[in-house]
Every structure is written in structure tokens, then in C-alpha cells.
Design brief:
Elements: E1 3-5, H1 7-12, H2 20-29, E2 33-36, H3 37-48, H4 54-70, E3 73-74, H5 78-93, H6 100-112, E4 115-118, E5 131-133
Parallel strand pairs: 1-2, 1-4, 2-3, 4-5
């Protein structure tokens, strides 16, 4: 694996007018891309917040039968938690507080040597991790 996809990349695939460049890169690099448990949680949370109906059913189907099948889901494990704790301390000492889930995603990428791929680069800039905007 080479890339850890953020929620924003997976969400892009469901937009009425998705970014063509993002989709092209996803098609080109999908085979060396993965997601992680915090991203999976965000995707499920967003889906479950929708009212029961066709839109929610279609999204559930997309998540279970496409996303889950194409992208392995990496855990937030002991190594990631250890990196995350140290990174939170480093940032706090600089007067910065980053969203916890972004820290989890960054930690998983950092300990596995992956590049975080997102449409929200600013969310990951505080972390000591490689980031690409697709």
C-alpha cells in the first residue's frame, strides 16, 4: 500500500459533480490505496445520519459493496496510538489542537509509511506526515 485515503476522497465519488482530477487519480492509484478504521467510522456515521430512504440505501450499498471490497481497512492500533499521543503533545506545546480523528488518520499513515490523500490538506498540515491533495 502507498496511500491512505481520507473520508473526503471517498465522499468525492458520491458527489453529483465530483472533481474529475480526484476521480482520475483514484482510478489510477486505487490498487495501492487503503482506508482506515477512523475513515470507515466517519463514512458509516455520515450514512447512518441520513433518513431512511433510497439515498441512504444507495449509500449503504456503495460503502459495503464497493468501498469495503476495494479498500482494506487498517486498524488504529498500539503503534498508531503511541505515535498519536506523542504528536498531540508536540502540537499542544506549539499551542495547536488538531481534531482527534485527523490525528488518528495521520498516525495510521505515519506508522505504516503511507501518504494521506485528502481534499482537505489543511486538516493534516499540523501533523508530521506526508499529505497529497487529489
Amino acid at each position: 500500500m502507498r496511500y491512505l485515503l481520507d473520508t473526503s476522497i471517498i465522499s468525492e465519488t458520491r458527489k453529483v459533480r465530483p472533481n474529475g482530477a480526484t476521480l482520475e487519480r483514484l482510478l489510477r492509484h486505487g490498487g495501492v490505496s487503503t482506508i482506515c478504521a477512523p475513515v470507515w467510522q466517519e463514512l458509516l456515521y455520515g450514512c447512518e445520519r441520513l433518513p431512511t430512504g433510497k439515498r441512504r440505501t444507495n449509500l449503504e450499498d456503495h460503502l459495503q459493496n464497493i468501498v469495503r471490497q476495494l479498500f482494506p481497512i487498517l486498524p488504529y492500533d498500539e503503534a498508531a496510538a503511541t505515535w498519536h499521543a506523542s504528536e498531540r503533545v508536540r502540537l499542544e506545546r506549539r499551542g495547536k489542537t488538531a481534531p482527534f480523528v485527523d490525528g488518528q488518520i495521520a498516525a495510521i499513515a505515519a506508522v505504516r509509511g503511507l501518504t494521506v490523500v485528502t481534499t482537505n490538506v489543511e486538516d493534516f498540515k499540523p501533523f508530521d506526515v506526508r499529505v497529497e491533495a487529489w
